[in-house]
Design a protein that fits this description.
The protein is α+β, with helices and mostly antiparallel strands. The protein has 3 helices and 12 strands, in the order αβααβββββββββββ. The protein is globular and about 50 Å long. It starts with a helix and ends with a strand.
Length: about 200
C-alpha cells in the first residue's frame, strides 16, 4: 500500500504541473500537430518540475531531445525508438534497458463541440512485457482550447485510471483506448474505453 501511495503522489506531481493557468501551445500552420502538443506538454512539465522530480523528468527530457534530433535527421541511440504520426495525431517513444521498457504514448481527439481538443499522455513501465507499476507511470489528460491556444489539465473524462496490473494503449488509428489487465494466473483480458465525443465509457 505504501508503494502505491508513493507512486500516486509522484504521478500527481508530474500530471498537475501548470494546470491552474494552463500553458500555450505554439505552432505554425492552420492548427497544432501532435508534435506541437508533445513539445508544449514536455516543456511545461520540465519548467514546473522540482529538483526531486529529476529522475521522473529524465525520460521526458530524452524524448524532447530525440524529437529535435529526428527533426534534424539525426539517428537516435540504439535503445530508443520514436514514431511521430502527424496524420493520425499519435506519438510513441520507447526507451529499452535490458528487460525494462519505458514507453510514452501521446495523442489527441477533436471534441464534439468543435472548440476543444483532448490531449493524453500515457507513460508506462514494463519488465519482461508486463506492467511494473513504475513510480512515475501515469495516464493524464489535458484540454486544449482552440480560441486561447492554451492547454490545461483535466480529470480523466468518464473513467478512473487504475494502476494495479493494468496498462493503457492510446489509439493510433480509431478513437478508443484499450485497457489490458494482467491476472495472477498469468492470463490477461482487455476492455475498450469508447470515445463519445467528449470522454470515454466502457
Amino acid at each position: 500500500m505504501k508503494k502505491i501511495f508513493i507512486m500516486m503522489f509522484a504521478c500527481c506531481t508530474l500530471a498537475v504541473a501548470a494546470q491552474e493557468d494552463g500553458f500555450r501551445v505554439n505552432y505554425q500552420g492552420a492548427k497544432p500537430t501532435i508534435k506541437d502538443f508533445a513539445l508544449a506538454y514536455i516543456t511545461s512539465l520540465i519548467s514546473e518540475a522540482e529538483e526531486c522530480d529529476e529522475e521522473g523528468m529524465s525520460l521526458y527530457e530524452n524524448l524532447q531531445d530525440d524529437i529535435k534530433c529526428q527533426a534534424k535527421g539525426l539517428p537516435l541511440e540504439a535503445n530508443r525508438t520514436l514514431t511521430i504520426d502527424q496524420k493520425n495525431g499519435f506519438l510513441v517513444y520507447e526507451h529499452k534497458y535490458v528487460e525494462h521498457l519505458g514507453r510514452i504514448e501521446m495523442c489527441y481527439w477533436n471534441e464534439a463541440d468543435g472548440k476543444h481538443k483532448l490531449f493524453a499522455c500515457n507513460r508506462w513501465s514494463f519488465e519482461n512485457g508486463k506492467p511494473m507499476m513504475g513510480q512515475y507511470d501515469v495516464l493524464c489528460f489535458y484540454r486544449y482550447d482552440n480560441a486561447t491556444k492554451k492547454m490545461s489539465w483535466c480529470e480523466s473524462p468518464g473513467f478512473d485510471v487504475e494502476y494495479f496490473n493494468k496498462a493503457y494503449a492510446l489509439p493510433r488509428t480509431g478513437k478508443d483506448i484499450i485497457v489490458t489487465t494482467w491476472h495472477e494466473d498469468g492470463k490477461k483480458t482487455q476492455k475498450t474505453l469508447k470515445w463519445n465525443g467528449h470522454g470515454f465509457s466502457y
